[in-house]
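User: ok so my PI wants both of these folded by tonight, can you help

Assistant: No problem, let's get them done. Here's the first:
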Amino acid sequence: MNIIVILFPLALGLGLLGLGAFFWCMRSGQFADLEGAAWRVLQDDDAAAPPAEKQAR
């Protein structure tokens, strides 16, 4: 029974900490562009090399 006195406030505090972190991320714009990073991973930067660099080698 004494463990409930420790675990209940600990669980409540961690839940509120997580909720606060979520709202902080929402306010600071962490979730503003959900698809941009996924499309940047798929872009091939090596294929778009300028012709001047290819001739200099």
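One down. Here's the second:
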Amino acid sequence: MSKADKTLLWMILTLLGGALALGLGAVWLNIERMDVAYDLRTMEKSLGQKEDLAVKLTVERNNLASPYQLRKLADRLELGVAAPGQIRRIADTR
């Protein structure tokens, strides 16, 4: 083999190695992209569920704190309006 043939063979092998490395890099990046997309979809779903729960809890809190519900609960527990002298105020000593 002549020196020109060895140089040509070396260049071809180098180019093939580079092409292989670039191909493997592209495959790895695609796999990483898919993993990130899956994680993002999972987090978006979780966020949506938490937002839905927050809305439901807000509605429930407003329902439980409504004057109608409080009056109904007070009647069931036999509570009434405080008479004069039954309320004691404690000063904040902070």
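The chain has one domain: 3-76. Residues 86 and 92 are 19 Å apart (CA to CA). Good luck tonight!
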